[in-house]
Amino acid sequence: MRKVVVSLAITLAAVWLAVPTALARDLTFEERVRAQESIDRVYYAAMGGTRPIGEVIPRAHLEGKVRDYLKKSVALERFWRTPVTQVALRREMERMSRSTVMPDTLRKLYAALGNDAFLIEECLARPALVDRLVGNFFAFDESIHGDARRKAEAIRDGLTALSASSIPSGATRADLLLRRGEHEGKQAIEEETAKSPLKTSAPERVDLTPEDFERAILDLPPHARPARSGSGGADHVRLRRGHRSAA
Fold first, then answer.
1. Bridge-based pairing state of the strands 243-246 and 172-180
2. Contact residues for 95 (Cβ-Cβ < 8 A; gap 6+)
3. Phi-psi sector, 181: left (phi>0), alpha (psi -120 to 50), beta
4. Cα separation values, 10 from 14, 19, 92, 143, Å
5. Dihedral over Cα of 201, 204, 210, 216: its sign
6. Distance of alpha carbon 108 from the chain centroid
7. CB-based contact 236:182 (threshold 8 Å)
8. What is the H or E stretch that residue 190 is in?
9. Residue 207 — pLDDT band, cuts 50, 70, 90?
10. Alpha carbon distances (Å) from 57 to 38, 46, 134, 167
11. 3-state class (DSSP) for residue 34
12. How does pLDDT run across 6-48, given as a tens digit for each residue?
């Protein structure tokens, strides 16, 4: 494996030294599409494909790949203040050469792109780099996921509360009311509070999309799931220790 890494490192060095002026130019969209076709042709051949690549990978698909990594590059700079630099692209190439499990395929990719350092960085390293960075930023962006995370934490707290086996007589505490979509919340809360045998304050309400509501219901213990009635089923469920109520 060490020999493979050294060999690829030498190949990279040769690529960078071979075209020292390439970094000064720009690529047109058409050049990027042609480069993407060359890349996909190598991958397709590595999988044993024999049909003409145009029949397997239409041009629209190639263009879509190019637009995708260009849009992600713009998003990184505008939204996350992380422009993709030449240094970052070169480091990505080094990472790819170190971690690849298909060194022969990687060499063929370099060759398919004419061993052009700039073309390799822009059309091979950039897509991989921006896809990984955008995925990481998106996964931990509080402005995007903050509300969903808070709802998930509220559901988690409600599920945790269900694990308690009993409640002291006359106990006072707030419950959690999960609701599907647009529900008449005030009436539902009043009805749920009136039916409760305990002294409770108004429950904390969490509005969920129909899909999230269904997932939350499936995560409940069987005894806590609301009874299904009619085609739509329950549209809210109240979570409390050792007791549940749903309509």
1. unpaired
2. none
3. left
4. 6, 15, 16, 44
5. negative
6. 30
7. no
8. helix 185-195
9. confident
10. 11, 15, 25, 63
11. helix
12. 454 445 444 444 444 444 478 999 999 999 999 999 999 999 9
